[in-house]
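We include this case.
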Amino acid sequence: MRDYETVFILDPALDENQVKEEVDKVRNLITSLGGEVTSAEPPIRKRLAYEIGGKSDGYYALVIFKAEPGSIKEMERAYRLNEKVLRHIVVVSPQKAKAVVPEEPKQATE
C-alpha cells in the first residue's frame, strides 16, 4: 500500500452535519476499497482563490490514508459523481515522495 493525501472542497451551502457526513463518506469509501485512513483534519470554511460554479467559498477537508494504487481511480470517480464536491485532488504523500527521489550523484574530486 502507498501513502496518499486527498484534499476536497465541499459546497458552502452545506451545514456542519452534512459536511461531517461527506467527510465520513470519503473515509468509508477508502476503507471499502481496502485502504486505511491514517488521519483526517476537520473541514475548514475558507474563501476560494477563484469562484467555482458561482461559489466564492467552501469547506476544505484533508484526509491522509494508505491504499492500493488501483483504488485511486474509483475514488476519483466517486468524487466526480458527488455534486457536493466542488474540487478534489489525490496525491502521493509528499513525505513518502521525498524518500523515493534519488540523491544527486556526487562529483569526483581530483
About this structure: The domain at 2-88 is CATH 3.30.70.60 (Alpha-Beta Plaits). The chain has one domain: 2-88. The two ends are 44 Å apart (CA to CA). The helical segments are 16-32, 71-81, 94-100.
